[in-house]
Design a protein that fits this description.
Layout lengths: L4 H8 L6 E6 L1 H5 L7 H16 L3 E6 L7 H6 L4 H25 L4 E5 L8 E2 L2 H9 L3 E5 L9 H11 L4 E6 L5 E2 L11 E2 L1 E3 H7 L6 H9 L4 E5 L5 H7 L5 E4 L2
Parallel strand pairs: 1-2, 1-6, 2-5, 3-4, 3-5, 6-10, 9-11
Antiparallel strand pairs: 7-8, 10-11
Helix pairs in contact: 3-5, 3-10, 7-9
């Protein structure tokens, strides 16, 4: 993948501000229920703003599971493509909410949508997203990939690569990293501080969905999986603190 002019400028001038992509699931926005939990979204937005104020360049991919899940609607008989498009619209609602709360925290934010809806969001343009981040703005990506059958996990990996992010951060509910088994079902499960993509594949560990996992592995994109349970963890992950599980190529 060729370097963008913006990325070249960072390297040419001897500076490399940390640039990361944060994946937040729809469950985060709903606080575990259907709809939006304003207090939860405001807290996440404030943590993102804190990291940006400290010089981190941040992009966010949001899920929409607090409104719709395409796969679940499809299982009830709805056309899968149409169900997925409904899910994409749910992610845009979440993106707009996050944008609003980030700006209320004092940091400018832009929403870019993979489905054209220019009255509420910019179209997805990678170089424009990079420029926004360089200017200290948060960028929130909505509408998934703009195509059915693609999960927001996969979109997060793709967006991280295309905007030249240094790391993909995956926030999880209910767990604080990757375990050898599901800790909610297996009391002997052990948390892993570091993990290679090879081991995760061999052991069948659920780091992310298969497409996102393969995309990150094949392009040597570092992934950090962390828990959302402890207050301040979003900021810690954005700043590069050693929390959760770090997943690397080697």
């Amino acid at each position: 993948m060729s370097e963008s002019p913006e990325r070249d400028d960072r390297i040419a001038h001897g500076t490399h501000p940390r640039r990361v992509l944060l994946k937040l699931s729809g469950e985060v926005f709903g606080g575990g229920s259907v709809g939006l939990d304003a207090d939860v979204v405001a807290d996440a937005a404030g943590q993102i703003a804190t990291a940006i104020d400290q010089g981190v360049q941040v992009a966010v991919v949001v899920g929409g599971g607090n409104f719709f899940r395409g796969a679940e609607l499809s299982a009830r008989g709805m056309d899968r493509a149409r169900a997925d498009y409904m899910g994409m619209l749910g992610t845009v609602m979440n993106a707009l909410a996050l944008q609003d709360f980030i700006e209320k925290a004092g940091v400018p934010a832009r929403v870019q949508s993979a489905i054209t809806m220019t009255q509420v969001a910019e179209p997805y343009i990678p170089l424009r997203a990079i420029r926004h981040m360089e200017k200290g703005r948060a960028v929130v990506f909505g509408a998934g990939a703009g195509m059915p059958y693609f999960s927001t996990d996969t979109v997060a990996a793709q967006r991280a690569l295309e905007t030249h992010c240094d790391e993909l951060l995956v926030g999880k509910n209910g767990v604080d990293g990757v375990y050898t088994a599901d800790p909610r079902r297996d009391p002997t499960a052990v948390k892993l501080d570091r993990l290679t993509y090879g081991r995760a594949l061999a052991d069948g560990l659920q780091v992310a969905d298969a497409s996102a996992f393969a995309l990150s592995r094949d392009n040597a994109l570092t992934m950090r999986v962390f828990g959302m349970g402890e207050h301040g963890n979003i900021t810690r992950a954005l700043l590069g603190e050693d929390i959760g599980t770090l997943v690397t190529l080697d």
